[in-house]
Amino acid sequence: MRAGLRRLAPALALAAASGCVLPDQVTRLERDIADLRRQIVELERAQREASRQVAEIEDRAADGSDSATRTDLAELTARIDRVAREAAVGGERLDDVDRRLERLQQETRRAQELARAGTRPSPPPGAAPGGDGAPLTPVPAPAPAPPAGAQPDPEALYNTAYLDFSKGNFDLAVSGFAEYQERFPHSPLADNALYWIGECHFSRGDFAAAIGAFDRLLERYATSDKAAAADLKKALAFQEQNQIGQAIVQLRYVLQRYPNTDEASIARDKLTALGQAPS
After folding, report:
1. Whether the predicted pLDDT of 218 surpasses 50
2. What tens digit of pLDDT does each residue of 138-152 get?
3. Domain locations along the chain
4. Which of 216, 193, 190, 212 is nearest to 202 (CA)?
């Protein structure tokens, strides 16, 4: 299911960046994808707990130390069945989001084709006409390029950089996000731009540069909603550089600083995989 979500994210970014779809359509899809991410984390946690309990029951059965093994197994089987049913529901929801995104992309492509042809696109299902009840006005021809030195449109600059990131054009993405961060340091997405710069460096294996970008984010925007993800990615970058001691310290910091988050759950799993206690 996680692979499906990773496949949806770049496509959703492309639809949003085009500017040809209704913002509330993208918002609803983003919300549904976030809900699915949380559900997947909970399911994976439940599966890990069930596996741990199965191992404990098998150990007790092997040495004959517990006469209630059969009852425990029955209860655990029922719990595993419930998790499987919830996973099936999650899969259906993912398929539904996938279908909605495909329709959204089709609307986007059609609107882009009509815009290039200079004709007016018909509104998508459920879209309202103009505020006075009149039909939507034709799509205007593209505006001429702004004069040299003019301030670029912040939304277009950010969306273009994100689209480059989603396509794997990391050099272009870093350049675009850096320009956005420099020109609009007080915008609501300035912290996100720094985070995606770090992700670009991480994706192309430049882990030292990634740590530097995440550090700049954490220093400049301490209350950012990307702070937990940045601290976790720092730990993973340390691990990739084989700096295991620093990675362990950073993972424990994530657990302490951001308890009850998806990042804390991942940090706990990483510590376990490294043979370390969470605290």
Report:
1. yes
2. 444 444 544 555 567
3. 2-117, 156-273
4. 212
Report yes or no: 153 and 131 within 8 Å, Cβ to Cβ: no
Look up residue 45 and give its two tokens: 């946690």
d(CA 185, CA 59): 57
| Residue burial 163-201, b: 16+ Cβ < 10 Å; e: rest | bbbbeeebebbbebbbbbbeebeeeebbbbbbbbbbbbb
Q: What CATH homologous superfamily does 156-273 map to?
A: Tetratricopeptide repeat domain (1.25.40.10)
Has this prediction a pTM greater than 0.70?
Answer: no
> In this predicted model, what pLDDT tens digit does every residue of 261-273 receive, in sequence order?
999 999 999 999 8
At the topology level of CATH, where does 2-117 sit? Answer: Methane Monooxygenase Hydroxylase; Chain G, domain 1 (1.20.58)
pLDDT (0 to 100) of residue 69 = 64
